[in-house]
Design a protein that fits this description.
By secondary structure, the protein is of the alpha+beta class. It has 2 domains: about 70 residues, no CATH class; about 130 residues, Metalloproteases ("zincins"), catalytic domain (Zincin-like). It is built from 6 helices and 10 strands; from the N terminus they run βββββααββαβββααα. The radius of gyration is 21 Å and the shape is globular.
């Protein structure tokens, strides 16, 4: 088991299109009895339904959820509008620790490599610092077995059951308080391998403003990319 800070069975699927949207319907061959709607930034609207659910039943379910679906899609479009566009030319500024910064490299590959190196150094330092703070507060030794940097598509960090912590290198673009929030979040998972009340109590003990930082990361995740 591992805990993750986030962004498939593939039986035959089909599309129906009441109104102007066209959701993907995935019928489950397992014991699913209810229908679930998922909103994916790239795949759009997905409806997971029992294998025997009729198209009429699915269409009615879709129409009932349409106001919520449209609201959710609007939020996603607002986030996508924050995606920056870079030309990778000399003098161009990129976000680093929350501030526009001219990097010593230019190509996309070089920029990513630079970010990864900085992420490894900075996140290792912050993780060890907050591990000491959490150890003092809890009276327990908090020590990740490994700290690594990864290229995740929809995750910011992961704490494995063996207490190995890995971070998405893109977090180095965020302001320091947001980076610290992620560090504290993953360290809290060393004591709590879920998102229980005890987990959030642990997190709040080292990041009292975690709700604000969590909100920032949720609303600005699209801007932290190249």
């Amino acid at each position: 088991m591992q805990t993750t800070l986030f962004i498939n069975q593939k039986p035959a699927s089909q599309k129906i299109s009441p109104d102007t949207l066209s959701p993907t319907i995935i019928r489950s061959a397992n014991r699913r009895r209810s229908m679930v709607i998922q909103i994916h930034p790239e795949k759009g609207v997905i409806i997971r339904a029992p294998i025997r659910a009729s198209n009429d039943r699915i269409s009615q379910f879709f129409k009932e959820k349409l106001p919520w679906i449209k609201k959710s899609l609007t939020k996603i479009q607002d986030k996508k509008s924050k995606i920056p566009k870079y030309n990778f030319v000399p003098g161009e500024k990129f976000p680093y620790l929350g501030a526009p910064t001219t990097l010593p490299v230019h190509s996309r590959a070089e920029v990513i490599s630079w970010y990864k190196e900085k992420s490894k150094n900075f996140l290792t330092q912050r993780t060890l610092t907050f591990a000491k703070i959490l150890s003092q507060k809890t009276g327990q030794k908090i020590s990740p077995t490994k700290i690594s940097i990864r290229s995740y598509r929809s995750r910011w960090g992961v704490c494995s059951r063996d207490n190995e912590i890995s971070y998405n290198w893109k977090i180095i673009m965020a302001p320091i308080p947001i980076i610290d929030y992620l560090v504290c979040h993953e360290l809290s998972h060393i004591l709590n391998k879920n998102h229980s009340r005890r987990f959030y109590e642990t997190l709040a003990s080292i990041d009292p403003d975690y709700k604000l930082h969590q909100k920032y990361l949720r609303e600005n995740s699209m801007a932290l990319t190249i």
